Amino acid sequence: MNTMKEVSRHTLSVLVENAAGVLSQVSRLFSRKGYNIESLAVGTTDDPEVSRITIEVLADEGSTEQIMNQLRKLFPVYSVQELLPDRSIRRELVLYKVKAEEPDIRNEIIQIANIFRASIIDVSLKSLTLALIGDETKADAMQKLLESFGILELVRTGMVALERGAYTIGDETKEKTEFNLGKNVM
Amino acid sequence: MKMKCSQVLMECLLEQGVDTVFGYPGGTILNIYDEFELHGYKDKIRHILTAHEQGASHAADGYARSTGKVGVCFATSGPGATNLTTGIATAYYDSSPVVFITCNVSENLIGKDSFQEVDITGISMPITKWQCLVRDPDQLADVIREAFAIARSGRPGPVLIDIVKNVTAAEVDFEPLPLSEHASHGRLGAMLRRASHDLKTPEPDHDDIDKLLDMIEKAKKPLVLVGGGVIRSRGAVPEFRKFFERLNAPVTSTIMGGGACPGNHPLFTGMIGMHGSHASNLAATQCDLLIAIGCRFSDRVALSPKHFAEKAKIVHIDIDRAEIDKNVKTDHHIIGDARRVLELLNEKLPAHDYPEWKEWVFSHKELDLPSVPGKLSPHEVLETITRLTQGDAIIATDVGQHQMWAAQYYHFSRPGQLITSGGFGTMGFGLGAAMGAKVGNPDKVVVHCTGDGSFRMNCNEMATEEHYNIPVITVIFNNQTLGMVRQWQNLIYGKRFSQTDLDRGPDFVKLADAYGIEGTRVSTQPEFEAALARAIESGRPYLIECAIDKDAMVHPMVPGGAKTDDFLLD
Asked: Looking at residue A135, which CATH number applies to its domain?
């Protein structure tokens, strides 16, 4: 039993078959352990038959390991990788709809957007909608600043992440070979 | 060849060599059941109609466990399907290969809360190895082939296939496919190719084998722990015997490992865990090397994971990588099929001996159980069964004290001889499972050990054993109480026997009679012996009700969470 019970943020990247029911099979393993998924992003990869799910969860190390092991046993799961913060890049897209009824307020918001390299993607007489790409510290900082103007709506895509350098999720490891047996047929 | 999908299903079952199906018909599965008559499949596949879908699920499971083949179970949609769930979970927890086939409402009624509609693939997700809803007639044959391939592969387990009714009526082209190609077509084949899996069992890592051999050389007090994985792995038991005899070290077993090491073998210390023997549990606390093969260190074995075999290096041999370090932190592991790993170990393992260590381990003897006048003592019952069946019977159990007594006192000598719900602990499992075992092993005596509580749960299956003349001998350990719960209340809950008294009907002998089954009530050992002899002789289902003392206990007992040598009952 892993004795480390400290809860921390873990980013998991999972390659799965692009089919109905697969996402619920994957997410079930988190709820079974009593963990709430902090963020989940899913979309197809360069191969339309394969989807990549990026999951962020607050969990202890031992449980994360076990969830990854259980994931690897599912037939529609092709690869599972934990993306460590110092060896990976993580980004999410956040849309902020902010109250902006007067011109000077609007200007002030645009200035903030420029500092954060966010883009203005919609404007009306009463509001501005900003799009920001970044990790959670950047998104939170921006949110804090915009709160004073009044945030009407906010949406996040969920974090997506990749390992730095030329390594890929498909690289063979001993552990991966060992898991071939768990799924082995005949 | 053009045929209806209902017939495709039957052809696929024949492809797999299926000769027996346990099940219960209903509205949505009618097309499939019609095939038994319409195209005469009843002559090739024997269908056993149970009293309840749960009975069918346990029967298919018992059939699978006792024969090593894949069990097959049919049920209709809605309640038919949900009635299977306890049986599916029971099979899942003990890695038993069963293919469950249910039908769902037609495509146009799916998702509309239609009559007898339920999302059984969703419900069974956490308790199956694989589940699939078939909505495309062209996929059916591949899905059935994949279901069997998955159920029996790697670590075996149950698979559920749900077919919408209109698919069963659709006509498709059916071409037979050789077994060797079964998992390379269709969805599974595509998934396996994508994940670069191949169909052969990968070889265990030879360096891992050598490392274990090294560890054995350094060990002075090794202990072997065998679990159900050695039972499930084809051909592993002879290799296992070769291994532990050459190692010449004590061998203990989980309940699921019963039969891997003959119960009367001089190296066998008995079962380990909550109701394990003194020798086994004390050996676990004192050993310096624990070689665990095909077990998962459940909370009934490693009662306190932190303190389990704390003086030992723990080596875990398993086919399922996800079991490594799940419950108990290990020092080394080998991933592979038990038979192959043991073969490789046997190639290089020199003969060992540990006389002092063995002497110490086997110096711990079990205490004699007290006998109560006018009542049968549980070990007497099991010793009589052992004697009269020459230790060759298949023993199917329910769950509770009788299950532990059966595991402790019957000397199992081969895999598939003890049929018990070890992982899930399903009361009501026994009768169905015993029927399945008897159908799969008509030449063996099958004894169903049960308690008065467990038996009442699914005793309706007496109708099935009588109708098909499946000669199961049911032995009820009747102590008029839920004995195992009462034992905990006796020891831990200040003798407050909350809701465990079963001082009520039915009269089991009269009940058996109502089903057309002969029964006897006994309270002495000679009476029991005579009744059992008559039962074995009769070649008919038979029921023997044994009067057991209400406060008879399962000895020894180590409470949950305690250290393995912390006996509550000596």
From this structure: 3.30.70.1150
- Architecture of B206-362 per CATH? 3-Layer(aba) Sandwich (3.40)
What burial letters (b/e) apply to A6-21, b meaning 16+ CB within 10 Å? Answer: eeeebbbbbbbbbeee
State residue B278's pLDDT score: 93
Return d(Cα B176, Cα B40) in angstroms, integer: 19
* Domain B378-547, classified CATH 3.30.540.10, yes or no: no
What phi and psi, each to the nearest 5 degrees, are found at residue A20? Answer: -60, 140
Instruction: Please say if the pLDDT value at position B156 is more than 70.
Output: yes
Residues of A in contact with B322 (CB under 8 A): 66, 69-70, 72-73, 179, 182
Does A25 touch chain B if contact means CB atoms closer than 8 Å? yes
Strands across the sheet with A50-60, in order?
A37-44, A50-60, A7-17, A77-83
Measured between CB atoms, does B337 come within 8 Å of chain A?
Answer: yes
Residues counted in chain A: 186
Are B140 and B134 in contact by the 8 Å Cβ rule? The answer is yes
Per-residue tokens: B499:
């809701």
**Buried (b) or exposed (e) across B492-501, using 16+ Cβ within 10 A?**
eeeeeeeebe
Q: What is the pTM of this model?
A: 0.94
* Strands in A27-157 per DSSP E: 37-44, 50-60, 77-83, 88-99, 119-123, 127-134, 151-156
Nearest CA in chain B to A70: B322
B321 with A69: Cβ contact below 8 A = yes
E strands, B416-568, are 418-419, 446-451, 472-478, 518-522, 542-547
Per the structure block, which two tokens stand in for B282?
Answer: 């004390």
Separation CA B330–CA B370 (nearest Å): 40
Those residues whose C-beta lies under 8 Å from the C-beta of residue A9, and which sit 6 or more positions away, are: A38, A56, A57, A58, A85
Are B327 and A1 a contacting pair at CB < 8 A? yes
Residue B78 has pLDDT above 80, yes or no: yes
| pLDDT(B55) > 70 | yes
Alpha helices by DSSP H, B68-205: 79-82, 85-93, 120-123, 140-152, 165-169, 186-194
Query: Hey, what's the torsion of the CAs at A169, B204, B252, B389, to 10 degrees?
Result: 110
- Is the model more confident about B48 or about B570? B48
Q: Is the pLDDT of residue B437 over 90?
A: yes
A124 and A73 in a single domain? The answer is: no
Spatial CB neighbours of A113, under 8 Å, sequence gap ≥ 6: A119, A120, A130, A132
Burial grade of B250 (CB within 10 A; 0-12, 13-18, 19 or more): buried
Amino acid sitting at position A34: G
Residue for token digits 């084809």? Answer: B234
What's the rounded Cα separation, in Å, for the pair B121 and B125?
Answer: 6
Question: What stretches in chain A show pLDDT beneath 70?
Answer: 1-4, 176-177, 180-186
B2-194 in CATH: which number? 3.40.50.970
- Can you tell me the distance from the alpha carbon of B394 to that of B476, in angstroms, rounded to the nearest whole number? 16
Please tell me the predicted confidence (pLDDT) of residue A167. 84
Query: In the prediction, which pLDDT does A182 show?
Result: 56
Helix axes B236-247, B338-348, angle to 10 degrees: 40
What was the pLDDT predicted at B197? 64
**With 90 as the cut, is the pLDDT of residue B516 above it?**
yes
| Residues contacting B453, CB < 8 A, separation 6+ | B400, B427, B481, B482, B483, B502
Q: A125 with A153, same domain?
A: yes
Q: How much of chain B, in percent, has pLDDT values that exceed 90?
A: 88
Residue A5 contacts B, CB cutoff 8 Å: no
* Residue A164 lies inside a defined structural domain of this protein: no
A24 at the B interface (CB within 8 A)?
A: yes
